[in-house]
Backbone:
């Protein structure tokens, strides 16, 4: 059995996960960190990585490289340099982005590819140390907006770090896989998930339909610049103003003052995900004056109110892009470090009324959101560990990964006129599914294609209990419904002896719709081919 | 939640117990995510039925 691991490689943090005896764990590096800052720093000829490198942002920002992942495989003209505003400036290195760094031999240009290799090598060494064996292969996750060039650059960097890449998968699919493996009790089965990955410098969303354990991404959405750093900045500005009120000095005028505030603000923000108040202490913030105090969660929520609203809007936009209504979402899976913030989970709970929000603040069994991508990559790595290269290539070719999908639900009409969905919309074909329904004496199964719609009803609340804080504002109640709109075929049988009937819908590879119904506990069965669809 | 009973006359008019009406709406091609045990099962099924998919091309 080969030694394989999963890697999450973010702009802000990276993580390594390993599956052993069916259990997945996120590995700590020698410093004890499981969320390893994707940062590389040089002090003279010494190289620092992870948290030690990140600490250099205060004194040695010019020789510290952060937020570089999204620069891989892109010409300088295509990058957003503002992502590295607090660290070494990206420059045009010709074929790739480069940094001007002082590494003990005067200033030299270091390509982003080399920085990535240095960072990934640390991950490789940490994994090898922990497992006690060299790493034979990895599965790495990348965002859904990565194209061939950027993906290739990531793979090359992994290989440069002595980690052969078995497979590259998408971050949201990895996260969903990890969540499904960890939490069958929270949500499982066919559903529509909104996977919201809220990181440090970007937010990514994917709307994914799960059908029979197969994931289909229906839409993706990205917001660059929206992430935890923006929340840190909001706290930085708040602290700076408070400090200035008291001491008539603006700490933002000094670069080091800004860096200190950023560092402390991030710590305060993280503490406030778990407790209702946090203390802070900064030595010599400006004019030699120390700054310390406490701040509570409510204050933070006020200071960051507009940003929280942005996350919520971003989530709604993603669902709209998929052509769905918020009520169509069954699960909101929160991923990434910023997904730990209780207020964000709460806002999403009210925006997605039909959904289970999977986040630590609202669901105690949720897996730590910042671990999900690495865990999913590790699960996939274990699944393909013993495949040879050609087997993986075969399985990921288009004849396998591109499949026709239904565009509308198919179901059977019930006695009350409603439609019982058997095959939901967006199901990959071929598929065979059935339902068992009560029937007496005879049955009539009309198979319909259906349509989802939203019913809107104005509700004026009535104050029956003379409640003093009664809210009599009328509101719109929205409910989801599905109706049969298009009759596909009919099955009927008289004189059945049992009291249950199984209705089976089978769509073949040739797109033939075969329907049948059989009496359970009896011999009666009827069947036929309703029709054959054409591929668009 | 139960099935309706047969309308009168339906069984005698349709002795097979079946009537075809129409095909379902044309499906659209979408990419499925190549991850997880569900996908691997799908890949095995597809690759086994591959002679058919090669005919299709
Ligand atoms: N417990 C917490 N509460 C609030 N924020 C947190 C918590 N833990 C981490 N964060 C924040 O999460 C962000 C990092 O998220 P993550 O590790 O998912 O980054 P990433 O995937 O590298 O993201 P990106 O590529 O967007 O930079 C940072 O802004 C960090 O401050
Ligand atoms: Mg991320």
Residues:
């Amino acid at each position: 059995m080969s030694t394989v691991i999963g890697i999450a490689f973010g702009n802000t943090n990276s993580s390594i996960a390993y599956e052993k005896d069916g259990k997945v764990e996120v590995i700590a590096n020698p410093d004890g960190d499981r969320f390893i800052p994707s940062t590389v720093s040089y002090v003279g000829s010494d190289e620092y990585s992870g948290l030690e490198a990140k600490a250099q942002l205060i004194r040695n920002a010019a020789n510290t490289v952060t937020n570089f992942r999204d620069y891989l495989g892109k010409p300088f003209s295509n990058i957003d340099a503002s992502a590295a505003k607090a660290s070494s400036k990206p420059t045009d290195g010709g074929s790739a982005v480069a940094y001007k760094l002082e590494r003990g031999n005067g200033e030299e240009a270091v390509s982003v590819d080399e920085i990535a290799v240095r960072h990934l090598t640390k991950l490789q060494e940490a994994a090898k140390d922990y497992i006690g064996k060299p790493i034979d292969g990895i599965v790495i996750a990348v965002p859904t907006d990565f194209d061939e060039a950027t993906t290739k650059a990531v793979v090359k960097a992994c290989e440069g770090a002595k980690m052969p890449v078995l497979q590259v998968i998408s971050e949201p699919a990895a996260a969903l896989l990890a969540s499904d493996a960890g939490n069958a009790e929270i949500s499982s089965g066919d559903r529509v998930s909104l996977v919201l990955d809220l990181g440090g410098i970007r937010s990514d969303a994917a709307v994914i339909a799960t059908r029979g354990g197969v994931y289909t991404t229906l839409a993706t959405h990205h917001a660059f610049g929206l992430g935890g750093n923006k929340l840190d900045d909001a706290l930085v500005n708040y602290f700076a103003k408070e400090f200035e009120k008291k001491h008539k000095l603006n700490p933002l005028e000094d670069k080091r003052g800004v860096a200190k505030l950023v560092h402390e603000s991030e710590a305060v923000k993280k503490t406030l995900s778990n407790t209702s108040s946090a203390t802070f202490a900064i030595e010599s913030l400006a004019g030699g004056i120390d700054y310390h105090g406490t701040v509570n969660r409510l204050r933070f929520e006020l200071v960051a109110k507009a940003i929280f609203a942005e996350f919520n809007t971003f989530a709604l936009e993603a669902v709209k892009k998929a052509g769905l209504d918020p009520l169509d979402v069954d699960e909101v899976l929160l991923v990434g470090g910023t997904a730990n913030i209780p207020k964000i989970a709460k806002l999403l709970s009210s925006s997605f009324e039909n959904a289970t929000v999977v986040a630590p603040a609202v669901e105690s069994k949720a897996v730590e959101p910042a671990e999900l991508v690495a865990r999913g990559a590790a699960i996939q790595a274990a699944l393909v560990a013993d495949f040879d290269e050609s087997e993986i290539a075969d399985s990921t070719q288009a004849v396998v990964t591109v499949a026709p999908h239904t565009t509308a639900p198919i179901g059977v009409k019930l006695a009350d006129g409603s439609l019982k969905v058997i095959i939901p919309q967006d199901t990959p074909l071929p598929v065979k599914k059935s339902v068992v329904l009560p029937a007496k004496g005879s049955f009539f199964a009309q198979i319909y294609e259906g349509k989802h719609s939203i019913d809107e009803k104005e509700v004026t609340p009535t104050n029956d209990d003379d409640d003093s804080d009664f809210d009599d504002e009328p509101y719109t109640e929205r409910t989801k419904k599905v109706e049969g709109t298009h009759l596909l075929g009919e099955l009927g049988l008289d004189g059945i002896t049992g009291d249950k009937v199984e209705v089976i819908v089978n769509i073949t590879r040739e797109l033939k719709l075969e329907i049948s119904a059989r009496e359970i506990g009896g011999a009666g069965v009827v069947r036929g081919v309703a029709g054959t669809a054409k591929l668009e | 939640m139960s099935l309706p009973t047969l309308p009168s006359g339906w069984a005698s008019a349709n002795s097979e117990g079946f009537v075809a009406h129409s095909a379902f709406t044309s499906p659209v091609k979408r990419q499925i995510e190549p991850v997880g045990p569900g996908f691997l099962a799908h890949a095995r099924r597809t690759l086994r039925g591959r002679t058919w998919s090669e005919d299709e091309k």
